[in-house]
Write a structure and sequence with these properties.
homodimer; about 500 residues; Neurolysin, domain 3
């Protein structure tokens, strides 16, 4: 076996371990009885150690050298590039630092679970400071190994090749334009008829049946996937067996429906990954911003469109026996596009969400650079919320303690949410220009034209291209904040 | 880390991989969409290769030597003994032979799936002959490594330390006594009132609710386990998360109920394994005959007793709205203890089942020893059925092609069914002598006394003792066929 073939065999094993890990995670979140938690944590930890040993196998370095001299096609070359990137991440951090961060992250997360409801930031602060201290060390050693800045070394784990300078430019643009836009949109929406929330209850079995029907409409194949319930919705599994989850609220059907649509967007991307390369590094999703673009393209671009609300309204009426003004297309569209200033990121609408992300991005960069101390986080948070969103958190619980991300050391992830939203806008804009039947299709419940375009322009490429190359190939240009802004202005300040 | 501690760490990893494999198997049988089958097979194959590499790691030999000089307590010594046994199995067979048998087994099983419904033994025969040829090779190399006979080398995989001479003695005893006993029992039952089968349909949700209730009565803890549906019922998972399955027939509640009770017996054994040793070789179940004794003790000994039928009858009436003669305790007890000569092992009752097993045991020994050729199997099967059961199979479909076991190379497993039934009888006899409240408890739906005895005398011992030692400690003697025979005579020829 030549060096490249040996590498494919080796990374194929890692791919299969990842498949197993996906199912074990899914099971833990959906099926496992509570008494299995402790044992499952141990089993997952062992599996991850085995995976790490494969990913950091010293024998790989020699094989990379051997493969460098071989004749490889474009996919193989890209696969080799992604292998090397994964190897650099796996080998950059000494084992004792990995373990120290893992332990500090678990301890901080446990403290957070109690300190947040108690609104006790003082209790959390030393744990969080320790996490950031260790994250900084990790970022420094990874930066040296990858030849990028410390923040970019973390970002690269979620957004391969991501550039902090590019994010700065795009986010500065958002930071300067969003506050005025939010102001305008809220004023504009105040002139519309008041939104009427449909009255429940909305039985869970009917919500589920509706979700299954809409998933099918979007192109989800139930021979290759499932819909289940978990506390935090997610998309897991693998290309041939994609597992999405949601949660139901009997008093409000709107969140589960859009949640299911969001996860279906992720699922369609997973399902569309290139068959030949699915268990190789080049065959996985390009990164978290592209992944999030696929969920937000479905949820925000396609399914909050007037066209889709027009299509889905009779279905909602039939499902829940709804009638009257609350169940008109106009009202439901207003409901699904309502903009409000809020404290909580996960409850935010499309217009205010980026402001939440810009705040977190700026703060995590400052914390990582040691320009901001953890003890000063609440003040910086309140100030940022005031500037970007015009609201002041009444406490830390719904302020700087609301997200789990930093607690376990996840730094560099937040920007991908908004990069994803912008990418979604740019892809949907290009798609609807390229095929004039896409939006009418969405309006008649025919997502085949849209899915065809996404398969051809996004899904089938796996990680062959960089995010920039992928976006340029699909839309004619790299990420352009103007497209997203134009989308927001059209939807939220237009006449609709 | 000393040699023994290093061995514990190593086998702990294998234990965790086994836990992961259990959940992946369970998911495949219960949750996986059909389109995931191909990928799952690949993932399981990779996981098994990783497991095999750990189990056959050449570095272990040196550690065994190192550990031999250490001071170890009884559990550690037994753990080391079980490690060495597992290592001998893992290293005995050359990789190319493992692969050849695996491929021949898959090919034979695939042919069997088509040849059985077509009743085409001629098509199956060459594939099955190839499987037996390779099984013979495996048995020979394992026999040399373990210092036992070839058949015992296979048996040892399922029944550690199992002796063919002992099985011969016990099974010869059965073979000579069973035909007359079956004759007598059928004549005896012919004098009873005819069995009335309750009329359905029996809705699946009610059957499930009944199963859950009865599982709880037996001592199953749903914080540490689940009940689901699969085509072939099984017990999987691990001690803290035991997963049993069943299948439902809307026209007949009796099978699912006893199926659930059977699997619950397995589950209680798994759940009761010694906590400190659960992921070590000494902490696993002692072998398949003890495992089967735990399921059959619940299904056959406890729950087909007059006492349990008396307890469960009102529950059955409530569950299904049953009334009239079919729903009397007498009739339901007759239904659950009905003896009939049949062609199919899995449909057999407690009295005729051992005859099916004795036939298979004798045939697989002859096939392995090359004393019987595969092409002569149908004739030998028909002759054995006539002698042991007094019935003649009309075809091979319901004759020698009915079981999957041999098709994939599983030889040496069949005897554990009947060894388990005999062990169950002996354990239940000892238990009810040791605690006079056990049988009355079963009659009032209080299984705590029985479970307490099983925990103390079987479950908590894991693989510390040999099967013989375990049985002797619990019942005062090794396996004694007379106890099983006395049980059959009392239940099936007594006045009840």
């Amino acid at each position: 076996m030549n060096a490249y073939a040996a590498l494919e065999a080796h990374y194929g094993r890692i791919g299969r371990l990842d498949d197993a890990l996906e199912i074990l995670f899914w099971d833990m979140a959906t099926m496992m009885p509570k008494g299995g938690a402790e044992g499952r944590a141990e089993t997952l930890a062992t599996m991850k150690v085995l995976r790490h040993e494969l990913a950091a196998d010293p024998a790989l370095a020699e094989r990379f050298e051997g493969a460098a001299g071989q004749e490889l096609d474009a996919w193989q070359q890209a696969n080799l590039r992604e292998m090397k990137r994964a190897y650099a991440h796996a080998t950059a951090v000494p084992g004792d630092l990995v373990e120290a961060l893992s332990k500090a992250g678990s301890a901080c997360e446990m403290t957070w679970r109690e300190a947040r409801p108690a609104n006790d930031f003082a209790r959390l602060a030393p744990k969080l400071a320790e996490v950031f201290r260790l994250v900084r060390e990790v970022a420094n050693v990874k930066a040296a190994a990858l030849g990028v800045s410390p923040y970019e070394a973390l970002l690269d784990q979620y957004e391969p090749g991501g550039s902090a300078a590019r994010i700065d430019a795009v986010f500065d643009d958002l930071a300067s334009s969003l506050p005025a836009l939010i102001e305008q949109v809220i004023a504009h929406q105040a002139k519309r008829p008041a939104v009427i929330r449909p009255d429940g209850p909305f039985p869970i079995d009917r919500q589920r049946a509706l979700g299954v029907k809409v998933m099918g409409t979007l192109g989800f194949d139930f021979d290759h996937g499932r819909l289940d319930v978990s506390h935090h919705p997610f998309c897991g599994g693998t290309a041939d067996d994609v597992r999405i989850t949601t949660r139901y609220d009997e008093g409000d059907f709107t969140k589960a429906l859009m949640g299911v649509i969001h996860e279906t967007g992720h699922a369609l991307y997973e399902r569309g990954r290139p068959a030949r390369w699915r268990f190789q590094p080049v065959g996985v999703a390009r990164g978290m911003s592209v992944h999030e673009s696929q969920s937000l393209l479905m949820e925000m671009q396609a399914c909050r469109s007037r066209e889709f609300i027009g299509y889905v309204t009779p279905l909602l009426r039939d499902t829940f026996g709804g009638e009257g003004a609350a169940w008109s297309v106009d009202n439901l569209h207003r409901l699904y596009t309502q903009v409000r200033r809020g404290l909580i990121r996960v409850d935010a609408d499309e217009v205010t969400y980026p402001a939440h992300v810009v705040l977190r991005y700026r703060l995590e960069r400052a914390l990582l650079a040691d320009d901001l101390q953890v003890q000063d986080l609440p003040g910086a948070w309140a100030e940022g919320m005031q500037t970007l969103l015009g609201v002041k958190p009444p406490d830390d619980r719904d302020g700087c303690m609301q997200d789990i991300h930093w607690m376990d050391g996840t730094v560099g992830y937040f920007p991908t949410y908004t990069l994803g939203a912008m990418t979604a806008a740019q892809l949907f804009d290009a798609a609807t220009r390229a095929d004039a039947d896409i939006l009418p299709g969405v309006g008649r419940g025919d997502f085949a034209p849209l899915l065809r375009w996404l398969r051809a322009n996004v899904h089938q490429w796996g990680s062959l291209l960089s995010t920039d190359e992928l976006l340029t190939q699909a839309t004619g240009k790299p990420l352009d904040a103007a497209v997203f802004r134009a989308h927001l202005e059209k939807r939220y300040l237009g006449d609709a």
